[in-house]
Amino acid sequence: MGSSFSGALVPLLLTLKVAGWATAINLVLGIGAGLLLARARFPGRDLLDAALTLPMVMPPTVLGYYLLVLIGTQGPLGGWLLQHFGIRLIFSWQAAVIAAAVVSFPLVFKAARAAFETVDPQLEDAARSLGLGEAAVFFRVTLPLAWRGILAGLLLAFARALGEFGATLMVAGSIPGKTQTLSIAVYEAVQAGQDDVANFLVGVTSLTCIAVLLAAGRLAPGRVLARG
After folding, report:
1. Which pLDDT tens digit goes with each residue over 37-73?
2. Is 121 exposed, middle or buried (0-12, 13-18, 19+ CB in 10 A)?
3. Are the CB atoms for 53 and 110 separated by under 8 Å?
4. What is the dihedral of CA 201, 204, 210, 213, to 10 degrees?
5. Closest Cα to residue 106, out of 21, 30, 213, 160?
6. Which residues neighbour 153 within 8 Å (Cβ) at sequence distance 6 or greater?
7. Are 95 and 71 in contact (CB under 8 A)?
8. N or C: which end of the chain has fewer CB within 10 A?
9. Rounded Cα gap, residues 42 and 63, in angstroms
10. b/e map of 39-67 (b: 16 or more CB within 10 Å)?
11. What is the pLDDT of residues 73-98, one digit of tens each?
C-alpha cells in the first residue's frame, strides 16, 4: 500500500504543476481580457464576451477536440511549431497546461471583468488629474481596488484546473509520470480496481479544492462589503 501511495504522489505533483502554470497564464490573459471588456466599447463586444465565456459551458471533451485539431501534429499551430522549431505539444505536460488554461480561463476573465467594473472611474480620473499616466493609474489605482475579485477568480480557476479531465485526456493522454494528472489517475485506479489509491487521490483532491474554495470565499468582494 505504501508503494502505491508513493506512486500516487507523482500525479499529484504533476497536477499542481499543470494547475500552477495554467493559473499563471490566465493571470495575464484573464486580466487583459477582463479589462478590455470592462472598459472598451467596440462592435462585436458581446460576441467576444460570449466566445471567451464559451469554455465554461462547453463539454470538456469538445474543447479537447478543438485543441487536438489546433495543436495536433497536423494542426495549424502544432504543425507549425513541429516544422519550424521541432516542438511537439501533443501528449506532453505542456498540452495538459493548455487544456487546463482554456477550461479555467472564463473563471478568471469573468471575475476580472466584474472587479474592474466595480472600480469607481472618478478615482481613476482624480489620479490622472494629478499627472499619472495610464499605466501608473492602472497599477496604482485600478488594480489595487480590483485585486480581491481577481484573486478570488484565480483561486477558483486553480481549483478547476486541479480537477480538469476531459480536455486533458484528449490532448495529453494518460502517460504515467508524464501526463497522468490526478483526475486521470483516479479514473485509471478505479478501472484497475485499486480502490485504496483511488480513495487517497479523491481525498487529496477534495481537501485541496475545499481549501481553495474557502480562501476564494473569504476574498469575495461581497464578503468585504458585508464587513464594512
Report:
1. 998 989 999 999 999 999 999 999 999 999 999 999 8
2. exposed
3. yes
4. -90
5. 30
6. 30, 107, 108, 109, 110, 111, 112, 115
7. yes
8. C
9. 27
10. eeeeeeeeeebeebbebeeeebeebbebb
11. 888 999 999 999 999 999 999 999 99
Only one residue has cell 495529453, namely: 172
Report the C-alpha gap between 86 and 73 in whole angstroms: 11
| 177 pLDDT more than 50 | yes
All three cell numbers of 121: 472611474
Here the cell at position 169 is 485526456
First vs last C-alpha separation in the chain: 51
- Under a CB-based contact definition with an 8 Å cutoff, are residues 25 and 154 in contact? no
Q: Which grid cell sits at 27?
A: 493571470
List the grid coordinates of 135: 499605466
Position 199 scores a pLDDT of: 87
